[in-house]
């Protein structure tokens, strides 16, 4: 197989299920590709560049076939679909959200996605200033949500501290009855439902705080 940045990034992503982001090294990626580590440095200079390439692969996988809203599709539904695509792409890999967080993605797919977002919001009556805030806001919410979602699998612990029975034991229900109820309900919550609810809260806030409100 001919090495290039994309091949290396994909191999690194596939290694995540086994070693996690903290255990990922250039040497392990090279071994997975059956090459010596120096061969990788022709394409990625260091782990920082490797992470950027991995993030680009995740992002492009989410939005590669993204299109403008269909006729009659509202801007809010379109934004929910975009955020859902991003979440699904991150969830394909262990620590997928951590890969995307804080990395530098530069790709035609990113610029196209941002352009589609801005045009969709502009068509919905948003000012450019308001529209420009929306994509980063949803990206940050989605990334943060998935980081927490993936952490709750407990794969980085010898014993998963997020287990419902564990949480029920450590929260003093006498002293903190409301907190206990909240954390227990949250631990048992369906991630899809919670993600969708959070998105709709954010979008409702965007709608009501825009500087040029339009019904």
TrEMBL record:
Residues 2-62 form the HTH tetR-type domain. Residues 25-44 bind DNA. InterPro entries: DNA-bd_HTH_TetR-type_CS, HTH-type_TetR-like_transc_reg, HTH_TetR, Repressor_TetR_C. Coiled coil: none annotated. Keywords: DNA-binding, Transcription, Transcription regulation. It comes from the Bacteria. Pfam families: TetR_C_1 (PF02909), TetR_N (PF00440). PANTHER family: HTH-TYPE TRANSCRIPTIONAL REGULATOR RUTR, TRANSCRIPTIONAL REGULATORY PROTEIN. This is TetR/AcrR family transcriptional regulator C-terminal domain-containing protein. It comes from Nocardia iowensis.
């Amino acid at each position: 197989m001919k090495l290039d940045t994309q091949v290396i990034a994909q191999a690194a992503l596939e290694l995540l299920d086994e070693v996690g982001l903290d255990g990922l090294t250039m040497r392990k990626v090279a071994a997975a590709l059956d090459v010596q580590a120096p061969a990788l440095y022709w394409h990625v200079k260091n782990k920082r560049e490797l992470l950027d390439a991995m993030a680009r692969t995740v992002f492009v996988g989410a939005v590669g076939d993204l299109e403008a809203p269909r006729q009659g599709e509202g801007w809010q539904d379109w934004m929910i679909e975009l955020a859902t695509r991003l979440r699904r792409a991150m969830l394909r890999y262990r620590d997928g959200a951590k890969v995307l967080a804080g990395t530098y993605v530069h790709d035609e797919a990113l610029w196209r996605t941002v352009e589609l977002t801005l045009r969709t919001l502009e068509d919905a009556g948003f000012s450019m200033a308001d529209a420009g805030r929306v994509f980063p806001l949803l990206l940050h919410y989605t990334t943060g949500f998935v980081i927490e979602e993936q952490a709750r699998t407990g794969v980085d612990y010898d014993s998963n501290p997020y287990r419902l029975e564990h949480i029920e034991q450590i929260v003093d229900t006498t002293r903190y009855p409301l907190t206990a109820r909240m954390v227990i309900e949250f631990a048992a919550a369906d991630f899809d439902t919670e993600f969708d609810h959070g998105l709709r809260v954010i979008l409702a806030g965007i709608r009501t705080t825009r500087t040029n409100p339009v019904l």
